[in-house]
Predict the 3D structure of the following.
Amino acid sequence: MRAPVAACIGLGSNLADPVAQVRQAFAALARLLDTRLIGRSSLWRSTPMGPADQPDYVNAVAMLETGLAPLDLLDALQAIEQEQGRVRDGTRWGPRTLDLDLLLYGETTMNDARLTIPHPGLCERDFVLVPLLEVAGPEWPVPGHGRLGELPVPAAHGLERIDA
Ligand code: ROI
């Protein structure tokens, strides 16, 4: 088995009771093979990035300690998305019941056809950075970008904390 690595996962939902979707996803992450859920952020409401004619999102971040390799973890995240009713209809930036993004995997950088780490949207998305700061703290390394607390947080999507 691989040495466990701390991995951060971004959660987002804007369909079918988003708060329940995100809570259910935390529970599913906690059950993953070779994995412990070691941190979870607050839930945050955010206005949509992309087409505005869709419901607001609920966003959060989970921190895992995992022995799964990056692509195995990606498979596991996509299986949870499928279980929670995600339909990929090809619409770019359309609404979704559950989106799980692999944001960070230890200090690994990776540029594979299926997976780029750190997640390419991480630096420009307040709905990722704000919950990520809650779980990882400002000293957390972001490969290629210094420390998390050094990244400017754009105030773009009206973030509101909806629970602790
Ligand atoms: N917008 C917000 N606010 N939160 C998300 O999680 C989110 N996810 C997406 C797109 C459609 C880009 N917009 C989003 O995938």
